[in-house]
Design brief:
- The protein is of the alpha/beta class.
- It has two domains: 19-190, Glucose-6-phosphate isomerase like protein, domain 1 (Rossmann fold); 202-340, Glucose-6-phosphate isomerase like protein, domain 1 (Rossmann fold, 3-Layer(aba) Sandwich), CATH 3.40.50.
- It has helices spanning 17-24, 26-49, 62-79, 89-92, 115-126, 141-145, 164-180, 191-199, 202-209, 227-241, 250-254, 275-289, 300-305, 323-340; strands at 55-60, 83-85, 103-109, 130-135, 148-151, 218-222, 245-249, 266-270, 293-298, 309-311.
- The strands form two sheets. Strands 2-1-3-4-5 form a five-stranded parallel β-sheet, with helices on both faces. A five-stranded parallel β-sheet has the order 7-6-8-9-10, with helices on both faces.
- It is globular and about 55 Å long.
- Keywords: Repeat.
């Protein structure tokens, strides 16, 4: 099939070689979570479900914040539990004393090393919360503070832009939330092989990246389960190629920001196959009406209706699992645009792997 031939990966020491290698590891990381990690995740979910939390709070920063937002959709849609994102500064900066009896606090962090995440989790435990840490480091301060821990099993991640830990977070959170409702999460078994198929199509992404080499800004939009993907894609573009990328829920885009979109504005729409995609359809119609340079990541029919994009193998994949596939071409797009603009995506300027916010 056209577009399945991939150029050789960068050699060791070349710009982007670490990020490229870590993106390629994702199917294996997902398989590992489904085999080695799933039993422990299900047991953790069983123990927490027995305590009958009445509310869920999610705490995270950066890329992990987008994984937490994904979990918010899962928890509200699949469990019907009220769920919110924490404002950590209310406890770490303002010293507020929350009342969190019977509340589940899930803290998501690749490194588990940011001081404010640990301090917030400790304060929540003192306030009566059930605390769960989801990290890629079982020996991290956060893992030690939390009552429960889920290991992402992603192996060391050395590139500054997080890729394999993000998709591992999505998979781990999916398995955990399914476990809370006594579902074994077996629907996720198809994801690693589909992810490998998507990642093989590097030439398609490289061709698409040519459209954005000289972009001065970008808009990325979605609805429902795709919205966290939009936010993560925007972050990846900003931190690797320094393009100002604005992520909006499709509903929010219509409430004002649509005015900045014109016929030279590059817009990427992430269209899930399901209710979120149907809810986004009026936004797509408005964008086409404004003559936007619209690219779609999603089902083939939506890509054909746009001015290009990347078709995903989403048939028979539950909508809640599609974000694990949606982000893959967008990670590669950020990588390819950075390379085309002469940047090294392994080492974005002014960033460090562990950001110690307080």
């Amino acid at each position: 099939m056209a577009g399945t031939v991939t150029s050789p990966a960068p050699r060791r020491g070349e710009p982007g070689w670490i990020m490229s290698g870590e993106m390629a590891e994702q199917p294996e990381v997902l398989r590992r979570l489904l085999t080695e990690g799933a039993p422990q995740i299900r047991e953790t979910a069983r123990l927490i479900a027995a305590r009958k939390p009445r509310f869920v709070l999610l705490s995270a920063r950066g890329t992990s914040d987008h994984a937490a937002l994904y979990a918010k959709y899962l928890i509200e849609v699949e469990l019907g539990l009220p769920c919110g994102l924490t404002s950590m500064s209310t406890t770490t900066a303002y010293g507020a004393t929350p009342h969190l009896e019977d509340v589940l606090l899930i803290t998501v962090s690749q490194s588990g090393g940011s001081p404010d995440l640990g301090a917030s989790a400790a304060a929540a435990a003192e306030a009566g919360a059930i605390t769960l840490a989801v990290t890629n480091n079982p020996d991290s301060p956060l893992a030690e503070i939390a009552q429960f821990h889920i290991d992402l099993l992603a192996g060391p991640e050395k590139a500054l832009p997080a890729t394999k830990t993000y998709t591992a977070e999505l998979m781990a959170l999916y398995l955990f939330v399914m476990g809370l409702r006594d579902d074994d999460g077996s629907a996720a078994a198809v994801v690693p092989d589909l992810a490998a198929r998507v990642l093989e199509r590097g030439e398609e992404v490289r061709h698409l990246a040519g459209r954005y080499r000289f972009a001065e800004r970008m808009v990325i939009t979605s609805r429902g389960y795709g919205y966290p993907t939009a936010k993560e894609a925007a972050l990846k573009l900003m931190e690797t190629s320094y393009i100002p990328a604005l992520a909006y829920s499709g509903a929010d885009l219509l409430h004002g920001p649509l005015a900045m979109v014109d016929n030279i504005s590059p817009v990427i729409a992430i269209v899930t196959q399901g209710r979120g995609g149907r809810a986004l359809q009026p936004v797509l119609d408005r964008l086409r009406g404004r003559g936007a340079d619209l690219v779609v990541v999603g089902p083939a029919a939506q890509v054909e209706a746009a001015s290009g994009g990347f078709a995903l193998p989403t048939d028979r994949v539950p909508e809640a699992l599609q974000p694990l596939l949606e982000i893959l071409p967008l990670q590669k797009l950020a990588y390819e645009v950075a390379i085309a603009r002469g940047q090294d995506p392994d080492a974005p300027r002014a960033l460090s792997k562990v950001t110690e916010t307080r």
